[in-house]
């Protein structure tokens, strides 16, 4: 976890070398997984999640955003409404640490030069890289193979407002489509474990982060540049 935090600070340092309006803050909320085990409800935050967020506001309409999120990911067939899953009775626990970078777009002008209160919906996408334990099942017991990593595509919607001249509060819901199918242990990548695969092998794993961000604005306030 420490090396991910150091990487986040390096990204932060590079970005703040440009004289723009900066935001840095925290994310607090919950996570859930969607895949071959457990509940199939997309927005179902049940495992605590936390993270750090940095934004470099390039204009009133868009910002470059970097983040690191961490959460435990769990699922249990007992929570599913699908009879086949209930009868199978599998469950797993994993952890996700995600590094993400991309573009946040505001639907309305969010000009931080102005002191009046503003509110806007926003969307965010980019690219993420997630670290997790590659799992496999022996009977109904999930075991860890090794630490794995995967590229993921974040797709996020939210709404935010400046609650003070220096603090911005946001609420967001974000789905991540991963390029992995072994977060839940259903499709181990180890060739020696191929006989332990189950579920839909053509569908990769998804996970969600839902929660609140609170960021502090700082730095010089030059005219926004639009080039």
Task: Write structural notes for this entry.
About 10% of the residues lie in helices and about 55% in strands. It has 2 helices and 8 strands, in the order H-E-E-E-H-E-E-E-E-E. Strand 6 (about 140-160) and strand 7 (about 165-180) form a beta hairpin. The radius of gyration is 19 Å and the shape is elongated. The two termini are about 35 Å apart.
A few lines on this structure:
The chain is mainly beta. It is 9% helix and 54% strand. The chain has an 8-stranded antiparallel beta barrel.
C-alpha Rg, in Å? 19 Å
Strand order of the largest sheet: 1-2-3-4-5-6-7-8
Question: Number of DSSP strands?
Answer: 8
Shape type: elongated
Run of helices and strands: HEEEHEEEEE
State the end-to-end CA separation.
36 Å
Strand % is: over 45%
Instruction: Give the helix level as a range of percent.
Output: under 10%
Low-confidence stretches: 4-19
Biggest pleated sheet:
8 strands, antiparallel, barrel
Oligomer description = single chain
Count of separate DSSP helical elements? 2
Tell me, rounded to a whole number, the average pLDDT.
88
Pairing-aware structural class of the strands and helices? mainly beta
């Amino acid at each position: 976890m420490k090396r991910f935090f150091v990487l986040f600070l390096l990204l932060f340092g590079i970005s703040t070398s440009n004289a723009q309006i900066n935001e840095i803050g925290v994310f607090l909320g919950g996570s859930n997984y969607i895949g071959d085990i457990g509940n199939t409800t997309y927005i179902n935050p049940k495992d605590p999640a936390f993270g750090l967020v940095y934004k470099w506001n390039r204009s009133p309409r868009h910002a470059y955003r970097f983040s690191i999120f961490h959460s435990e990911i769990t699922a249990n067939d007992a929570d599913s409404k699908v009879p086949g899953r209930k009868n199978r009775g599998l469950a797993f626990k994993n952890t996700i640490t995600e590094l993400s970078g991309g573009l946040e777009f505001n639907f309305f002008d969010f000009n931080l030069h102005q002191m009046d209160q503003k509110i806007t919906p926003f969307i965010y996408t980019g690219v993420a890289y997630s670290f997790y334990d590659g799992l496999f099942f022996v009977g109904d017991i999930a075991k860890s193979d090794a630490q794995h990593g995967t590229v993921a595509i974040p797709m996020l919607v939210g709404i935010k407002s400046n609650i003070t001249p220096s603090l911005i509060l946001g609420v967001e819901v974000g789905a991540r489509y991963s390029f992995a199918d072994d977060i839940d242990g259903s499709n181990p990548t180890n060739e020696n474990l191929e006989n332990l695969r189950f579920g839909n092998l053509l569908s990769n794993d998804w996970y969600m982060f839902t929660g609140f961000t609170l960021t502090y604005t700082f730095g010089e306030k030059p005219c926004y540049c639009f080039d």
